[in-house]
Design a protein that fits this description.
The protein has 438 residues and is an alpha/beta fold. It has helices at 38-42, 48-53, 75-93, 102-105, 112-133, 160-179, 202-223, 247-256, 269-274, 279-288, 315-327, 350-376, 378-386, 393-399, 405-412, 425-437; strands spanning 32-33, 36-37, 44-47, 97-101, 136-141, 184-187, 193-194, 228-231, 241-242, 263-268, 292-296, 336-338. The protein has an eight-stranded parallel beta barrel, surrounded by four helices. Strands 1-2 form a two-stranded antiparallel ribbon. Strands 7-9 form a two-stranded antiparallel sheet. α10 runs parallel beside α11.
Amino acid sequence: MVEYFKDVKKINYVGKDSKEPLAFHFYNPQEKIGNKTMEEHLRFSVAYWHTFTAEGRDMFGVESAHRTWNQYSNPLDRALARADAAFEFMSKLGVKYFCTHDRDLVDEQETLRETNKLLDKVVEYIQEKMKETGIKLLWGTANLFTHPKFMQGAATSCDAEVYAYAAAQVKKAIEITKELGGENYVFWGGREGYETLLNTNMELELNNLANFMHMAVEYAKEIGFTGQFLIEPKPKEPTKHQYDFDVATSYAFLQKYDLDKYFKFNIEANHATLAGHTFQHELRYARINNILGSVDANIGDLLLGWDTDQFPTNVYENVLAMYEILKNDGIAPGGLNFDSHVRRPSYENIDLFYAHIAGMDAFALGLKVANKILEDKVLEEFVEKRYNTFNEGIGKKIVEGKTSLKELENYIIDRKVELPKSGRQEYLENLINRYIFG
């Protein structure tokens, strides 16, 4: 078997004082943070698509990285070589999970039957690799956005045959996820949206999308797939407007169509910022509604208006993310999946290691700082004092829903209303900095 990363040994924790670049300086898998190890808290996962399928193409340029495992002309040979590279990389990096679309595993053939036949062979091979290495599937999904037939949606397509093809593809993807022991299955509506309402029957599309998801839920029950179903929101790009715009919009959709009991959310940082939210906002909204399921760990460039999927090296953002995840008591059976790709000029194979090490170290720092902030209860105590007027008297009656507009008018009509407590945003931001750098 070809060794694709022969210049790289197993990546180990060496501590912050070491200058070794191919090593973890902050991520120590077995270090206890609270009641779990770092490895248990973070549940890192490698994205099959960005790491082993993508080769540095963007909308203005062809591939800049020529991954030797993708150079085989025969699709089965190429798929098996890609699997070899993937499991070698993940074993040396020391991660326990990966995530994949069905079309990352093998390229689409002329018919669904031909594609499925190849998939079965590749899945059998991947099962062997998983058994050898102990690496697991965090989640599977179907690619319903790359092929031209999905240019106007899949479950929201204007064409019934495209809809049927998408349904059959998801059926197979759920089967594969179950076969590989996947702990979750993700729906990302890559093109489930519209470019213009002038040609769109929005009501029909949303109804069809809901029916599609109900069929998936029923089929999972039929075959005994017990993994968590997840939705990954994204507001735009490639479509002008996508129906899974953000967590709140998607949650309202689930509630309307009686799907909310079956789904949680896989939240991506870069999608949050494209929706005009912070990453923490989306995590917080999901957490307080008990629908936080998993995370696509990346970051976007706020000066660019598209999904740049950069590695999550902003420690400040990671602190706030881990604060929400810790308050959620973790995200298992979900995890932190690096839905991130190296920049186009980082075209050498070794750059894949540098990028993942950077993201893992940055999230390890975020975990440690967030845990300390929670242990000291500095934010909780501040927030509690800020809202303490709701703990007694008229405030308590408001919270308990035991008052009325008339009673509130009688209570306040002759009172002089003072200014509420200062929010002290700058003080709190400095406090976070002190925890990070202190």
